[in-house]
Amino acid sequence: MMKARISHTVARKIADHARGQLPNEVCGLLAGRDAHILAAHPLRNVADSPQSRFQIDPREQLQALKAIDGAQLDWIGVYHSHPRSAPIPSQSDIEQCADSGLLQLIVSLERLKPQLKLWRVDRDSVFPLELVYETDNTPVDELALSPSQQAAIVLVAFAAVLILLIISFTLLPPAPEIRPAS
């Protein structure tokens, strides 16, 4: 199986673009060299029914291609999202693929964590590619926790403090007995 590489930063940019436009599909161009995705160029989805299809704005596509060329990169693929389904090319995705040499990256938002899958479409055949994530110099806050993970941490911390208080009170010596003066 052929492999392609992508940095965590570029993958996050694509996933954030997809999340930010829910419930619509998003689309964009992938730039890089060979099978190394080095940049993503988010574009507007101008489809008549953007909840179930994507269509790249031709003027934005031309601007993105100029930017890719200016960065001395190659246009190596297209990405789009599936807000409510698996990251598998639909029949319309396959029919819409104009160039079989381009990579097709699909980001699925059907689960809590976005799933990215890479494909090569060659006429009527679809081939999965292994997507290898590269570490890069992203700041630590790029590893942010989801709201449910944050809530779980707060709940566990609260329970731990409560347990410590209960244990502390049980270990205290008994209060001295105060007798009235006679």
User: Which outline best applies?
Assistant: elongated
- Spatially, the strands of the biggest sheet line up as 1-3-2-4-5-6-7
- Beta-strand percentage? 25-35%
Give the averaged pLDDT, no decimals. 88
Number of helices, where a helix is a run of at least 4 consecutive DSSP H or I residues: 4
Low-confidence stretches: 138-143
What share of the residues lie within helices?
Answer: 25-40%
In total, the number of strands is 7
Main β-sheet description = 7 strands, mixed, barrel
Class per helix and strand makeup: alpha/beta
Order of helices and strands: EHEEHEHEEEH
Q: What integer value in Å does the Rg equal?
A: 26 Å
N/C terminus separation: 94 Å
What can you tell me about this protein's structure?
The structure is a single chain. By secondary structure, the protein is of the alpha/beta class. The chain has helices at residues 8-20, 58-70, 91-96, 147-171, and strands at 3-7, 27-33, 36-43, 74-82, 103-108, 115-122, 125-134. Helix 3 (91-96) links the parallel strand 4 (74-82) and strand 5 (103-108).
Give a brief description.
This protein is an alpha/beta fold and 182 residues long.
